[in-house]
Specification:
Blueprint: H1 4-41, H2 52-70, H3 72-102, H4 108-131, E1 134-136, E2 139-141, E3 156-160, E4 168-172, E5 180-183, E6 189-193, E7 198-205, E8 208-217, E9 222-226, E10 232-236, E11 241-247, H5 264-284, H6 286-360, H7 368-372
Antiparallel strand pairs: 1-2, 3-4, 5-6, 5-11, 6-7, 7-8, 9-10, 10-11
Length: 375
């Protein structure tokens, strides 16, 4: 027969156990709900990119960037021209200095070497001018090159300085090259191509120069006679060429057109040509250089505005991140406090249950024989 006390104890233990399971299910359910609510209370987006000030700053940056891209090729043309002006002037001064050392020298070897150095400097000017060409699309611009035969817009640039309009700088090209042409008795124009060293024949119709297809190699051509006053020239070789030499650009010729500087008079004549070229440069180029500096200042201002706008965006991002972290931290703290309270409640319930179990177990049996006898 089962003891009533034992039966009661088993029933209580069963109920307590049942209550414990129900309590754990409730705690688990509450915990899930708390976590879900905490997720809802956390910031869903770290940075609000839909903020009005953030959008406006982004749009301004995009507009300024598009404007810079729009005028990029024109700016590159001006920058190349400005750099070419400086390099050409330095080269002219170097050439003049070279020739001045030749005056009074009786050494043929010295004259020959200086003549070669002089020619190299003149050719360098031609290279610098050609290097100032900016190609984009099917067009090319050069503000310091030879524009004969090209369309008028190729030596003029109108560059806006503000993305909203209302400001622009106009640049007009100038010829700072060292080219020349020879007009023969038939009225045809012969121009030297520096790449393949050939004179190509051209016709001129309505100021438009067109190649005829005829050419003469300059490899074996030598200057037989040249009058700098009239321009009359004769070149001898396997295919001779004669006519009137017309200088262009800086009006400078290489040493062969100065009889290879055979005497000081010819050297001084070349020095005079160089001084005239330097004067031309000093008169014609300041407007270009000044406008180029104004353009650079305008672009620096745009870059500064973009930098300020980017800083504003960084500030907005930081504000959003700080706010997001604050919201998330508050939600986390709220959840943590709630869970701590639940832990305390659970611990308290466990203590109550343990006390109930100890009461239903009765008085502990005594030790030794008395305990064995049920006392």
């Amino acid at each position: 027969m089962t003891s009533p006390l034992s039966s009661s104890t088993g029933l209580i233990e069963s109920n307590v156990a049942s209550n414990q399971f129900n309590s754990m299910d409730s705690i688990a359910l509450i915990t899930k709900q708390l976590v879900a609510r905490a997720k809802e209370e956390r910031a869903e987006v770290a940075v609000d990119f839909d903020r009005g000030d953030f959008i406006r700053a982004t749009q301004k940056i995009e507009r300024l960037t598009r404007f810079k891209e729009k005028i990029a090729n024109n700016v590159a043309t001006v920058t190349k021209a400005k750099g070419a002006v400086t390099e050409i002037r330095n080269t002219l001064l170097s050439a003049k200095s070279k020739l001045q050392t030749m005056i009074g020298s009786a050494s043929p070897e010295t004259r020959q070497q200086i003549s070669k150095d002089y020619d190299d400097l003149i050719k360098k000017i031609s290279t610098v001018v050609d290097g100032a060409t900016q190609n984009f699309g099917f067009r090319s611009f050069n503000l310091v090159g030879n524009f004969e035969g090209s369309s008028p817009e190729n030596n003029k640039l109108l560059i806006p300085t503000r993305e909203t309009g209302g400001g622009a700088l106009q640049f007009e090209g100038m010829d700072l090259g060292v080219d020349f042409k020879i007009i023969d008795e038939g009225g045809f124009t012969w121009k030297l191509d520096k790449i393949d060293n050939k004179f190509y024949q051209h016709t001129v119709v309505n100021d438009l120069i067109t190649k005829t297809g005829l050419s003469i190699s300059a490899d074996d051509l030598n200057v037989s006679s040249y009058d700098p006053n009239s321009g009359s020239i004769t070149l001898v070789g396997s295919q001779p060429l004669s006519g009137t030499l017309v200088r262009s650009g800086l009006n400078i010729l290489t040493s062969e057109y100065h009889q290879n500087f055979s005497d000081d008079t010819l050297v001084q004549r070349a020095i005079t040509d160089l001084e005239t070229a330097i004067t031309k440069l000093d008169i014609d180029t300041p407007p270009l250089v000044t406008k180029a500096k104004r353009l650079e200042t305008s672009l620096e201002g745009i870059d500064l505005r973009i930098k300020i706008l980017e800083k504003e965006k960084d500030t907005i991002r930081q504000e959003e991140l700080d706010a997001s972290r604050a919201v998330s931290l508050a939600a986390d703290m709220k959840l943590q406090l709630t869970l701590n309270n639940m832990n305390l409640l659970t611990s308290g319930n466990n203590a109550i249950v343990e006390n109930m179990l100890s009461l239903t177990s009765g008085v502990a049996k005594g030790p030794g024989v008395f305990g064995f006898m049920g006392f």
